[in-house]
Design brief:
By secondary structure, this protein is of the alpha/beta class. Strands 1, 2, 3, 4, 5 and 6 form a 6-stranded mixed beta sheet that branches. The protein has a domain of 126 residues: Collagenase (Catalytic Domain) (3-Layer(aba) Sandwich). Helices cover 28% and strands 12% of the residues. It is globular.
Length: 233
């Protein structure tokens, strides 16, 4: 008859009504993340990969001497006077580059004692240069827009290498920068190229590590075993 519900349909409706009345299980809340201290935030920021600087193939083509002076490290021995130049238009701060060069040159593992000045007379200069200016400064040596050189008065540092390093140093840009400064200034002090002495041994700093390690391990220092800080002058 019309209007009557069959027993089977009534049972289905009852079951559905019963299921809908079952309360939903509680939703588990995600645990609150632990608070991050200011020091941890700073550490994370310092360890985060820095974006590469975009180095132009040619900037202005003109150098600017970085002003200021810095004393040599304490100790005995002669002092080398030098100055730092940066090509105008490069994306590097002159004072930051000069400070890094001075730290490297005066490291106990380095060549000796260096005084940075901003006028002559000097023994040499360290000049951060775009790839094309490097090629011009280093001619007739072929640097191919990639290598650095000593040109007789300047340790010409290719800004592209300074920004990116080389794959032989496996991403250790700081160590590569130490190498390229030590190597090119080494030429300015009269040191010639050397070769890898044997597989898995430390490469001499005057080996052409920017090209190849030839089986040696990377080494940015003239005196890698000297870790003692010099005592008073």
């Amino acid at each position: 008859m019309r209007g009557l519900v069959s027993p089977g349909l009534a049972l289905c409706l009852a079951l559905l009504a019963g299921c809908s009345a079952v309360p939903a299980p509680p939703v588990a809340r995600a645990p609150e993340p632990p608070a991050v201290s200011d020091q941890e935030k700073q550490d994370r920021h310092e360890k985060a990969p820095k974006p590469r600087k975009k180095v132009p193939m040619l900037a202005s083509g003109r150098y600017r001497v970085v002003g200021g002076h810095a004393p040599p490290r304490p100790g005995a021995g002669p002092v080398v006077r030098y100055l730092v130049e940066v090509e105008r238009g490069l994306p590097f701060r002159g004072r930051e580059f000069a400070a890094e060069v001075h730290r490297i040159l005066n490291d106990p593992r380095g060549w000796g004692r260096f005084r940075r000045v901003d006028h002559g007379p000097v023994r040499l200069s360290v000049a951060l240069s775009s790839p094309q200016l490097t090629d011009r400064q280093c001619s007739p040596l072929r640097t191919g827009g990639e290598l650095s050189c000593w040109n007789g008065t300047r340790s010409v540092i290719n800004a592209l290498r300074w920004a990116r390093g080389v794959r032989q140093y496996r991403g250790d840009l700081a160590a590569y920068r130490e190498y390229v400064i030590s190597h090119e200034v080494g030429h300015g002090l009269g040191h010639s190229h050397r070769y890898c002495p044997g597989r898995d041994r430390l490469a001499p700093v005057m080996a052409q590590q920017s090209k190849s390690l030839a089986g040696c391990r990377p080494n940015p220092w003239p005196h890698p075993g000297n870790t003692r800080e010099p005592s008073g002058s």
